[in-house]
Amino acid sequence: MKDIAYEELQAFEGRAAEEAGRGKDPVNRPMIRHWCEAMGDGNPAYGGADPVAPATMLQAWTMGGLSANGGRFRAHDELFALLDGAGYTSVVATDCEQEYLRALRPGDEITFDAVIESVSERKTTKLGTGHFVTTRMDVRVGDDLAGTHRFRILKYAPVKQRPKGERPTGEQPKGGQPKGERPRPVVNRDNAGFWAGVAEHRLLIQRCDGCGELRFPWLPGCNACGSPVWDAVEASGDGTVYSYVVMHHPPFPAFDPPYAVGLVELAEGVRIVSNIVGVPYDKVRIGMSVRLEFRRVDTELELPVFRAVDVAGGAG
């Protein structure tokens, strides 16, 4: 891995990645329907006589398909070639932000411009060392700005994989308490109430003030009626395993795989993703009864987890 002068990377900031791009198709009912079916979103606003497209489809209207992207983003190609040549050969998407300014309706013709908004100085993460690259896309209908999409990736040189069986310095053998801190949750204005509840050992569910619909995870508005007004109710803590996966990824310092991550259906009817504890990972089953508890995972962080109920030979 070789150093790149940061000024050389900064020169890409403000460069157009796409100019006067056009959506491959106008906004249309079939794509809205497919999106809503995939998301399980039955909001009548998306299928009535005068429907609007779900706001979160913003980027979908700009996509050119698998065969239509070659050569479109030349500035990205040049930047990534520079980073690849310096040894930053891996890439991971880190986050995206969208701002919605105008509803999109069937028949709207989409145009868009994309720009490399920023390239960070060199950063060191648990994955490796590299640079964050943020791209902003402005989506328009005619002269109206419909929304803005920011997409951020990390181009990095991965940490060298340890030889099989070797553990990081200070990490206890499998079965002991893993060392290191968990990644911190992103707390924002939309979910701060949830994390405040966790700090009090309460699992809070949003309840729409307009129609009474319960929702989880926390959202700024109701999927059922669109109302932005809500309060919160405390979950009883009873649930069942609706689905689950077993994580086998390489051992990061704060984790000790394999372990089970479940999609738990609460007694109130909403679902939450969390760890299943109190039973070996290979004994977790769909339909298993679980009970909420709060577990301290490091010196500063507690998380809601679910303990298997009435399981013989449980562990953990």
Summarize the structure.
With 316 residues, this protein is mostly beta strands. The chain has helices at 6-10, 29-39, 74-85, 192-199; strands spanning 16-22, 90-100, 110-119, 123-124, 128-141, 144-158, 204-208, 214-215, 230-234, 238-247, 259-266, 271-277, 289-296, 302-308.
Reconstruct the topology from this structure.
Elements lengths: L5 H5 L5 E7 L6 H11 L34 H12 L4 E11 L9 E10 L3 E2 L3 E14 L2 E15 L33 H8 L4 E5 L5 E2 L14 E5 L3 E10 L11 E8 L4 E7 L11 E8 L5 E7 L8
Parallel strand pairs: 12-14
Antiparallel strand pairs: 1-3, 2-6, 3-5, 4-5, 5-6, 7-8, 7-9, 10-11, 10-13, 11-12, 13-14
Q: What are the key terms here?
A:
316 residues, mainly beta, Thiol Ester Dehydrase, Chain A, five-stranded mixed beta barrel, 4 helices, 11% helix, globular
Q: Can you describe this structure?
A:
There is one protein chain. The chain has 316 residues and is mainly β. It has two domains: 6-158, Thiol Ester Dehydrase, Chain A (Roll); 192-308, no CATH class. 11% of the residues lie in helices and 35% in strands. It has four helices and 14 strands. The chain has helices at residues 6-10, 29-39, 74-85, 192-199; strands spanning 16-22, 90-100, 110-119, 123-124, 128-141, 144-158, 204-208, 214-215, 230-234, 238-247, 259-266, 271-277, 289-296, 302-308. The strands form three sheets. Strands 1, 2, 3, 4, 5 and 6 form a six-stranded antiparallel β-sheet that branches. The longest helix is centred in the N-terminal third of the chain and has 12 residues, at 74-85. The radius of gyration is 23 Å and the shape is globular.
